[in-house]
Design a protein that fits this description.
It is built from seven helices and no strands. By secondary structure, it is mainly alpha-helical.
Length: 182
Protein backbone atom coordinates (compact mmCIF):
# COMPACT_ATOMS: atom_id res chain seq x y z
CA UNK A 1 0.00 0.00 0.00
CA UNK A 2 1.47 3.41 -0.95
CA UNK A 3 2.47 5.74 1.88
CA UNK A 4 -0.10 8.41 0.94
CA UNK A 5 -2.92 5.88 1.20
CA UNK A 6 -1.66 4.70 4.59
CA UNK A 7 -1.45 8.31 5.78
CA UNK A 8 -4.99 8.95 4.52
CA UNK A 9 -6.26 5.81 6.26
CA UNK A 10 -4.74 6.85 9.60
CA UNK A 11 -5.97 10.42 9.16
CA UNK A 12 -9.50 9.16 8.51
CA UNK A 13 -9.36 6.85 11.54
CA UNK A 14 -8.19 9.76 13.69
CA UNK A 15 -11.07 11.92 12.44
CA UNK A 16 -13.59 9.18 13.22
CA UNK A 17 -12.16 8.74 16.70
CA UNK A 18 -12.30 12.50 17.34
CA UNK A 19 -15.94 12.55 16.22
CA UNK A 20 -16.88 9.60 18.43
CA UNK A 21 -15.05 11.16 21.37
CA UNK A 22 -16.91 14.47 20.88
CA UNK A 23 -20.28 12.73 20.56
CA UNK A 24 -19.79 10.72 23.73
CA UNK A 25 -18.52 13.80 25.57
CA UNK A 26 -21.61 15.79 24.50
CA UNK A 27 -23.77 13.52 26.67
CA UNK A 28 -22.46 15.59 29.61
CA UNK A 29 -25.09 18.18 28.72
CA UNK A 30 -27.73 15.89 30.22
CA UNK A 31 -28.11 16.78 33.88
CA UNK A 32 -27.62 13.30 35.39
CA UNK A 33 -24.70 12.17 33.19
CA UNK A 34 -21.87 14.25 34.67
CA UNK A 35 -22.55 13.43 38.35
CA UNK A 36 -23.13 9.74 37.58
CA UNK A 37 -19.91 9.28 35.61
CA UNK A 38 -17.89 11.39 38.06
CA UNK A 39 -18.91 8.97 40.82
CA UNK A 40 -18.19 5.94 38.62
CA UNK A 41 -14.80 7.38 37.71
CA UNK A 42 -13.95 8.14 41.34
CA UNK A 43 -14.93 4.63 42.43
CA UNK A 44 -12.90 3.28 39.50
CA UNK A 45 -9.84 5.14 40.84
CA UNK A 46 -9.46 2.10 43.07
CA UNK A 47 -11.91 2.54 45.92
CA UNK A 48 -14.46 0.01 44.63
CA UNK A 49 -11.76 -2.50 43.70
CA UNK A 50 -9.96 -2.23 47.05
CA UNK A 51 -13.22 -2.79 48.92
CA UNK A 52 -14.06 -5.76 46.72
CA UNK A 53 -10.61 -7.29 47.23
CA UNK A 54 -11.02 -6.91 51.00
CA UNK A 55 -14.53 -8.42 50.84
CA UNK A 56 -13.61 -11.48 48.75
CA UNK A 57 -12.60 -13.68 51.72
CA UNK A 58 -16.02 -12.96 53.22
CA UNK A 59 -17.91 -13.41 49.94
CA UNK A 60 -16.17 -16.72 49.22
CA UNK A 61 -14.51 -18.12 52.37
CA UNK A 62 -13.09 -21.13 50.51
CA UNK A 63 -11.47 -19.28 47.59
CA UNK A 64 -11.69 -15.54 48.29
CA UNK A 65 -8.29 -15.14 49.94
CA UNK A 66 -6.22 -16.51 47.05
CA UNK A 67 -8.37 -14.66 44.51
CA UNK A 68 -7.90 -11.41 46.45
CA UNK A 69 -4.12 -11.92 46.35
CA UNK A 70 -4.22 -12.55 42.61
CA UNK A 71 -6.28 -9.39 42.14
CA UNK A 72 -3.87 -7.36 44.27
CA UNK A 73 -0.90 -8.69 42.29
CA UNK A 74 -2.68 -7.98 38.99
CA UNK A 75 -3.56 -4.47 40.19
CA UNK A 76 0.04 -3.67 41.05
CA UNK A 77 1.29 -5.16 37.79
CA UNK A 78 -1.32 -3.24 35.81
CA UNK A 79 -0.38 0.04 37.50
CA UNK A 80 3.30 -0.41 36.74
CA UNK A 81 2.52 -1.42 33.15
CA UNK A 82 0.15 1.39 32.23
CA UNK A 83 2.37 4.04 33.88
CA UNK A 84 5.35 2.80 31.87
CA UNK A 85 3.33 2.91 28.65
CA UNK A 86 1.92 6.38 29.35
CA UNK A 87 5.36 7.81 30.06
CA UNK A 88 6.77 6.41 26.83
CA UNK A 89 3.82 6.83 24.46
CA UNK A 90 2.88 10.36 25.67
CA UNK A 91 -0.53 10.78 24.05
CA UNK A 92 -2.22 13.94 25.28
CA UNK A 93 -5.74 13.67 26.63
CA UNK A 94 -8.66 14.59 24.35
CA UNK A 95 -9.68 17.69 26.31
CA UNK A 96 -6.13 19.02 25.88
CA UNK A 97 -6.01 18.44 22.13
CA UNK A 98 -9.58 19.46 21.33
CA UNK A 99 -11.13 22.56 22.92
CA UNK A 100 -14.64 21.29 22.06
CA UNK A 101 -14.20 18.38 24.48
CA UNK A 102 -15.12 19.21 28.06
CA UNK A 103 -13.04 17.73 30.89
CA UNK A 104 -15.64 16.28 33.25
CA UNK A 105 -13.27 15.55 36.14
CA UNK A 106 -9.59 16.17 36.85
CA UNK A 107 -7.30 13.45 35.46
CA UNK A 108 -4.98 11.50 37.74
CA UNK A 109 -2.05 11.96 35.36
CA UNK A 110 -1.19 13.80 32.15
CA UNK A 111 -1.33 11.23 29.38
CA UNK A 112 -4.14 9.10 28.07
CA UNK A 113 -2.82 5.95 26.37
CA UNK A 114 -3.77 3.40 27.62
CA UNK A 115 -6.65 3.86 30.05
CA UNK A 116 -5.51 2.59 33.45
CA UNK A 117 -9.05 2.70 34.82
CA UNK A 118 -10.24 0.44 32.02
CA UNK A 119 -7.21 -1.84 32.34
CA UNK A 120 -7.99 -2.44 36.01
CA UNK A 121 -11.75 -2.74 35.51
CA UNK A 122 -11.39 -5.37 32.79
CA UNK A 123 -8.49 -7.12 34.50
CA UNK A 124 -10.33 -7.51 37.80
CA UNK A 125 -13.58 -8.44 36.09
CA UNK A 126 -11.78 -11.08 34.00
CA UNK A 127 -10.24 -12.57 37.14
CA UNK A 128 -13.64 -12.68 38.80
CA UNK A 129 -15.44 -14.10 35.78
CA UNK A 130 -12.89 -16.91 35.65
CA UNK A 131 -12.86 -17.69 39.37
CA UNK A 132 -16.16 -16.50 40.84
CA UNK A 133 -18.47 -16.10 37.82
CA UNK A 134 -21.48 -14.77 39.74
CA UNK A 135 -19.36 -12.07 41.39
CA UNK A 136 -17.81 -11.30 38.00
CA UNK A 137 -21.24 -10.90 36.40
CA UNK A 138 -22.26 -8.64 39.26
CA UNK A 139 -19.31 -6.25 38.74
CA UNK A 140 -19.43 -6.37 34.92
CA UNK A 141 -21.91 -3.46 34.56
CA UNK A 142 -19.72 -1.32 36.81
CA UNK A 143 -16.62 -2.20 34.77
CA UNK A 144 -18.43 -1.23 31.56
CA UNK A 145 -19.48 2.07 33.12
CA UNK A 146 -15.89 2.74 34.19
CA UNK A 147 -14.72 2.19 30.61
CA UNK A 148 -17.46 4.44 29.18
CA UNK A 149 -16.77 7.13 31.78
CA UNK A 150 -13.26 7.62 30.47
CA UNK A 151 -14.45 8.82 27.05
CA UNK A 152 -17.62 10.56 28.27
CA UNK A 153 -15.61 12.64 30.75
CA UNK A 154 -13.17 13.69 28.01
CA UNK A 155 -10.21 11.94 29.61
CA UNK A 156 -9.56 9.25 26.98
CA UNK A 157 -10.00 8.48 23.33
CA UNK A 158 -11.94 5.31 22.48
CA UNK A 159 -8.70 3.61 21.39
CA UNK A 160 -7.17 4.37 24.81
CA UNK A 161 -10.10 2.51 26.37
CA UNK A 162 -9.88 -0.37 23.88
CA UNK A 163 -6.15 -0.74 24.53
CA UNK A 164 -6.73 -0.63 28.29
CA UNK A 165 -9.47 -3.25 27.98
CA UNK A 166 -7.28 -5.55 25.89
CA UNK A 167 -4.36 -5.20 28.29
CA UNK A 168 -6.69 -5.77 31.25
CA UNK A 169 -8.12 -8.98 29.80
CA UNK A 170 -4.61 -10.26 29.02
CA UNK A 171 -3.50 -9.34 32.54
CA UNK A 172 -6.52 -11.03 34.14
CA UNK A 173 -6.15 -14.21 32.09
CA UNK A 174 -2.42 -14.34 32.79
CA UNK A 175 -2.82 -13.75 36.52
CA UNK A 176 -5.42 -16.50 36.93
CA UNK A 177 -3.38 -18.91 34.81
CA UNK A 178 -0.09 -18.19 36.61
CA UNK A 179 -1.77 -18.58 39.99
CA UNK A 180 -3.24 -21.91 38.94
CA UNK A 181 -6.79 -20.78 39.60
CA UNK A 182 -8.07 -21.53 36.09
Amino acid sequence: MPADKVFHLFDRADQLEQTLCQQMNRTLRFRFVLPFFRVVSRLGDGIAWYLLILALPIISPAHGGPIALVMAFAGLTGTLGYRFLKQHLVRERPFINNPVIHCGTPPLDRYSFPSGHTLHATGFTTILLMTLPMVGLTVLPFALCVAASRVILGLHYPTDVLAGALLGVILGLSAVTLAGLA
